[in-house]
Amino acid sequence: MKRNEADIRYTWDLSSLFASQQAFDEQLQKSKTQLRDLCACKDHISDTIDTYIAFMSAQETFERGLEDLVVYARMCTDVEPKDMQNQQNLAAANNLMQQAQLDLTFVSLELIHHADKIRKFLKDERCADFRYPMEELFRTIPHRLSDEMEAFMSEVSEIAAVPDEAFQSIRLTYEDVEADGKKQFLNGATYHEFLRHPDARVRKQAFEHYFREYEKLENTFAALLIGNAKGQVLDAKTRHFDSALQASLFQDGVDETLYNKILYMANEKYIDALHDYFAMKKRVLGIAEFHEYDIALDLEPAFDVSYTIEQCADILKKALAPLGEDYTALLQKAFDERWIDFYPAADKRTGAYSWGTYDSNPYILTNFTGSYDSLSTLAHELGHSMHSYFSNQHNRPMLAGYQIFVAEVASTVNELLLSDYLLKTADDDAYRRYILSNLMEQFVGTCYRQPMFAQFEKDLHEWVEQRLPISSKTITDRCLQLNRAYFGDAVIVDDLQRYGFYYVPHFYYNFYVYKYTLGMAAAIAFVKAIRQGNVAPYREFLTKGGSESPVDELKHAGVDPSSDKVYDDAFTFFQDAMAQFEALR
């Protein structure tokens, strides 16, 4: 379908950002002027409390307008990438953003240089809103270097980024897979499709053809992983951190105890539950020799169900009703006021996301097909959008944006509440089993697989920090060891699986994956409270934005990510889902 053939009711209305090209152009010129005015304040930001307040407010206004420009241009391009005006707008917005990043590098340096003076300003109530952002900036002072060293490390960071850039640029060619009587193309996307093929020979062949290419280049991939870790270790050491892990966690105000707790809970305390899951899957699927290339098979066959957009809206309002009448009214508003771009179209971006700005509606792009996955995706993205909406409503722009650390909590809460509702209202046990199988798959991928990755990432950086000799064999042996501990006795882990860490892009994201586990555990804790009628703490959490550290946001809402209980409850949730599934068979 071409975009101009779509029913306008099911396309988004971006006029809350810019109603016309003229409005976009006017904001672009206005933002350029604002940037020049900000640059004129160099060396004078903290002359007086009044100049400080004026600069902070002016910078906030500039960033607000710049975000409107960038987001609008990108969203227009995502649905109509070939439109010349969209391309020009995106280029202009990106150019201004890059110019601003370059021109305003002096700001943080100047604020830090005058930290003592600014701390005195912050005692004044007129500066109350600036306290948390300044505290976060000043928290970095012990890890700041001289201006000369900062400039040097900036250049080093470009070198340290080379392993990731090289990894992203590698394009492997795989041997075709023989399936359904013909040779078929194998790449990263079709690989996962082949792993769901009903013929075990096809699954095995896809697995072998895929990982043999990584085996051929194992030394290259090992060098990239090691090089990336060395860059992170160098940066952490130079900035006076004890380890690369500590340096990464510092950004979120998290210590290593929390990280290690997540690894312990998933990889040790509750690993038997994962082994039980794979044993159950092997038994249900009836596969005598159950290999890791068989685990992508559906535990329960996909249920033949189809929803209209209007039915999805009705279901979601009922499923999310525990969150309050104002919440469900806002859901209806999202559908009525065209916050959502629903259907696939020629050239439209694939997948789904929630995005917007402080000034706009929290928009959603999706590619709706009417399936259960489409319904679940809507619930997920609406969770993001509602989080953004309430954060924007309760905070000024500089305090509205929430961190990635908590970004997946609200979206997962919505998915879990949707599953709750469907399990209660479905009149078919096969559909209930399908919902439970999806829940379990999501949990395994988030709360077990990610901690396995997180353990390897920790190991690799410690090897570098201890100056131990590292080769591809070091990495692949550890990969095989972790996979065998992960899958347990029910799954045969073939030797080629030792190359399984070489295709994971997250290892270049600097200790990122543990956040997935934390987000789901926190969401499960919130849903448990919501089921008991204790909704207020969660609703308060949705309003926090970036006004507190992400850990404090969770703690103040009654979910302490450092406590065992959060994870005990999460893994108990998984075990309960398995029991429910078994009871329905």
Mean pLDDT: 96
Largest sheet: 3 strands, mixed
CATH superfamily of the domain at 241-304 and 402-585: Oligoendopeptidase f, C-terminal domain
The helix fraction, in percent, is 55-70%
The number of helices is 24
Low-confidence spans: pLDDT under 50, at least 5 residues?
none
Spatial separation of the terminal alpha carbons = 41 Å
**Strand runs, count:** 5
CATH class of the domain at 241-304 and 402-585: Mainly Alpha
| Percentage beta strand | under 5%
Rg from C-alpha positions?
Answer: 25 Å
Q: Assign the CATH architecture of the domain at 241-304 and 402-585.
A: Orthogonal Bundle
CATH-derived topology of the domain at 241-304 and 402-585? Neurolysin, domain 3
* Shape descriptor: globular
Q: What is the structural class?
A: mainly alpha
* Order of SSEs: HHHHHHHHEEHHHHHHHHEEEHHHHHHHH
Instruction: Provide the spatial order of strands within the biggest beta sheet.
Output: 3-5-4
Account of the protein in words:
The chain is mainly α. Among the domains are: 3-141, Butyryl-CoA Dehydrogenase, subunit A, domain 3, CATH 1.20.140.70; 241-304 and 402-585, Neurolysin, domain 3 (Orthogonal Bundle). It is built from 24 helices and 5 strands. It has helices at residues 21-39, 49-79, 84-103, 106-113, 115-121, 131-138, 147-160, 162-169, 188-194, 200-216, 218-238, 244-250, 256-269, 271-285, 309-319, 325-336, 372-394, 404-425, 429-465, 472-487, 514-531, 536-542, 550-556, 564-583, and strands spanning 177-179, 182-184, 340-341, 353-355, 363-365. The two termini are 41 Å apart. The model has no long low-confidence stretch (mean pLDDT 96).
